[in-house]
């Protein structure tokens, strides 16, 4: 069944369309918006190889004949300044002198979406862009909310997402059937964020994941559609209240991420984002128990579901001290004070600052695999 979620902010209003085999409706959705006489697709070799032909022929079939393509290699290390510059050049070559309305189309996961969004937000001070997310993570998280950007290397260190903009897409079209080729590890990467949405806002979503795990891990479209729809609606509600993260509302999306980011960073990004957030959610739930905010049995439920999904709950490859040190550089730490999003129930979180270091330390200690 086709689902449409509308996201409205001060700067924009756009549809997130979710369904199976809906990619053929892309051109008509774009035409309704009247944003494209030409389209420049940004993608990766793998994704464009899988779905590029279908998309280009669908656009041409609907008389959007002027289509350009810019491909850059897969992987976080390619969300780089040099690829951004290269893609901008390709867009300029494609668009220059045409005086046509041009839309940039992101076809891929979060790496492609973040890069394409940043190119769109900066080329000619902003041209419309459309997201076609192809990973679970990009479907439930990165394609919506308007955060675009790239990583930047300075003094030999890569700083993730440090250069970017808030720039909302004009349309997000999530065709679940594109996920049938997604490797299981990538499905789990996004499922971790779905479980997060359940814990921060929606006990029913949490229970659904628990009850329907087999269907989800079996890529059954109705199950995937349900979790994507619910997750997008939660993110939409939060983004609408706090588009640019200035009101402490959008911060709740960072549950599991304070420790999660430290695990990624201290372990030199050997643990992927979803896995790191999964461990982070368990650790942060344990901190909530130690502070008397969350009943122990709820914490056990969180750990049980994460583990049942096949996501890790133990930290490998870094020490407690390196985690504590890395955490100090987290953007959520201000004036030396730590800040955590902690569950008080399944479906509800609170923001806490200044948590005693020994509590965090003792939780991490029990989670490290020696
Ligand atoms: N903008 C935001 O709000 C936001 C939020 C969360 C994460 N992010 C960013 O998202 C990025 C991670 O995104 P991701 O998890 O989607 O990873 P990704 O974009 O790196 O994709 C992961 C892998 O899956 C492959 N893939 C993608 N779709 C596929 C498909 N349908 N079939 C087969 N293979 C497929 C890709 O080729 C790639 O190898 C990070 O850079 C992160 O910073 C941004």
* Cα shape: globular
Main pleated-sheet profile: 7 strands, mixed
Task: Give the distance, in angstroms, between the N- and C-terminal Cα atoms.
Answer: 48 Å
Across the major sheet, the strand order is 1-2-9-6-5-3-4
Helix-strand topology string: EEHEHEHEHEHEEEHHHHHHHHEEH
Query: What is the average per-residue confidence, as pLDDT, rounded to a whole number?
Result: 95
CATH class of the largest domain: Mainly Alpha
Give a short synopsis of this structure.
By secondary structure, the protein is an alpha/beta fold. It contains 14 helices and eleven strands.
Features:
single chain; 370 residues; alpha/beta; Rossmann fold; Dehydroquinate synthase-like, alpha domain; 2 domains; 7-stranded mixed sheet; two-stranded antiparallel sheet; 11 strands; 20% strand; binds nicotinamide-adenine-dinucleotide
Topology:
Blueprint: E1 3-8, E2 13-19, H1 26-33, E3 38-43, H2 45-61, E4 66-71, H3 81-95, E5 102-108, H4 110-122, E6 129-133, H5 136-142, E7 147-154, E8 157-166, E9 171-175, H6 184-201, H7 203-211, H8 213-217, H9 221-241, H10 257-266, H11 273-290, H12 296-308, H13 320-327, E10 339-345, E11 348-353, H14 357-367
Parallel strand pairs: 2-9, 3-4, 3-5, 5-6, 6-9
Antiparallel strand pairs: 1-2, 7-8, 10-11
Helix pairs in contact: 5-6, 5-9, 6-7, 6-9, 6-11, 10-11, 10-13, 11-12, 11-14, 13-14
Bound molecules: nicotinamide-adenine-dinucleotide.
Task: Report what the structure shows.
- The protein has 370 residues and is an alpha/beta fold.
- The protein folds into two domains: 3-181, Rossmann fold; 183-370, Dehydroquinate synthase-like - alpha domain (Dehydroquinate synthase-like, alpha domain, Up-down Bundle).
- 47% of the residues lie in helices and 20% in strands.
- It is built from 14 helices and eleven strands.
- Strands 1-2-9-6-5-3-4 form a seven-stranded mixed sheet, sandwiched between helices. A two-stranded antiparallel ribbon has the order 7-8. It has a two-stranded antiparallel sheet with strand order 10-11.
- Helix 10 (257-266) crosses helix 13 (320-327) and helix 11 (273-290) packs antiparallel against helix 12.
- The longest helix has 21 residues, at 221-241.
- The protein is globular and about 60 Å long.
- The termini are far apart.
- The mean pLDDT is 95.
- Residues 44, 46-47, 50, 74, 76, 79, 108-112, 114, 134-135, 137-138, 141-142, 145, 147, 161, 178-179, 181-182, 186, 189 line the site of nicotinamide-adenine-dinucleotide (NAD).
